[in-house]
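Notes to self, Tim17/Tim22/Tim23/Pmp24 family-domain-containing protein:
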Amino acid sequence: MARYGDYTRDPCPWVILNDTGGAFAMGAIGSGIWHFVKGAKNSPKGERIIGAVTAVKARAPVLGGNFAVWGGLFSTFDCTLKGIRQKEDPWNLIASGFLTGGVLAARGGIGASARSAAFGAFALALIEGISIAASKFFAPPPMIQMPDLQPPNANVSGT
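result:
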């Protein structure tokens, strides 16, 4: 997720593609590890590696795709809100989590969509709050300016 004032990131249309691909990779790798262990555990004794690889091939792309959909929607909403509001602040991310959660649960009806949207907003608010608190906690202390030790009339010449 972009930090405020981070001008090293690509412009919005490219960020959406980048975040979608990154989310797919993260989901596929994490799911690959999970399903490898699960496949090996649930396979008969002589076929653990084959069972693990089969489980990874069957399930890792599915979860990776789910992550990609979430990441793409989230990034799309974030870019849209940045364009509409002309601001880059935590409210964009919280609203993007709200909209993403709501859209992904829309098939379950209004109630499920509202609950998922509220959870998405809460989760992003929690993440943003922790991020802001951590950045303030780990920020270097402000520079203390030493007072001028000369008397106030030291620069006056003459008398």
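- The two ends are 65 Å apart (CA to CA).
- The chain has a mean pLDDT of 89.
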